[in-house]
């Protein structure tokens, strides 16, 4: 290993230790403040890109999504069997990662276990805006209802991918602890999901091009001009392009600008709700983003959860993604007037 490569590896390890330590401290706080068990069994999935420490603190069941690499199929186990750094290094070396939806049969196994236990169950599912898995979950839920008519099972599209879904799940756990029934939690989640924001940037367009989301020529031009996108997701959970920035730092500053425009803080009545910062093996930029957020009014002591972008989402965005996720204004308020008309037509 060359001295420069060795130095880069040491720096990456130090940054990972730093973010892992902070994640552990935040997980301990959540473990004291939040309680997973109540009158509702909450199920989530690995596409929420949980910090492993937070997942353990919450105690909810996490359904692993599958992905395939050159050595076969893997289950997203929150980096237990492969580190995030190893995964993204393999992508940097040219390995192509593919993903697939969870099958109805796998969901059926999870929901049948829940039915045997008997506690009303709510699954906050990875959004249909990015995956068809939620349809498979609904099929499985229908089969369980048919076999166990007395059992309550609900599937809710979270419409907020990656760690935005982690924030939604964290607060859902607290709502269960506060006594919400399964039916009440569904109504809460179907409204609350529109108040979780996520803004992110990518290091390159390569993974998007390989996944067919943009033309390969556009990825090539973007790379030559050092163009970095700022992206988010719409009210259906699908990716949206917010802008194009010349250089990485400008893209990160665009994320901060969107934070300022949409974060409610004390105005929202509870400025202590945690935020999340996730990265695809880009801890240095994640820590820089956190430092900038700490300088914003009222944010000096807001809890920040650090985690790595999981392999399923990571396969489509590639190494270098950095995202900021937080509770803020109702995202439906920013809809264009034509989208508002469409939602009214659909009765939403």
Word description of this protein:
This protein has 348 residues and is α/β, with parallel strands linked by helices. It contains 13 helices and 13 strands. The protein has helices at residues 3-33, 52-58, 84-92, 104-117, 133-147, 163-177, 182-192, 206-210, 216-224, 248-262, 283-294, 311-317, 337-345; strands at residues 41-45, 61-63, 66-69, 72-75, 98-99, 121-125, 153-157, 196-201, 227-233, 239-246, 275-279, 304-308, 322-327. The strands form 3 sheets. It has a 6-stranded mixed sheet, with helices on both faces. A 4-stranded parallel sheet has the order 2-1-6-7, with helices on both faces. β3 (66-69) and β4 (72-75) form a beta hairpin.
Strand order across the largest sheet:
10-9-8-13-11-12
Number of helices: 13
Largest sheet: 6 strands, mixed
- According to DSSP, the number of beta strands is 13
Overall body shape: globular
Mean pLDDT comes to 86
Helix content: 40-55%
Rg, alpha carbons: 20 Å
Distance between the termini: 57 Å
Task: Note the beta-strand portion.
Answer: 15-25%
| Helix and strand run | HEHEEEHEHEHEHHEHHEEHEHEHEH
Helix/strand class: alpha/beta
Low-confidence stretches: 1-13
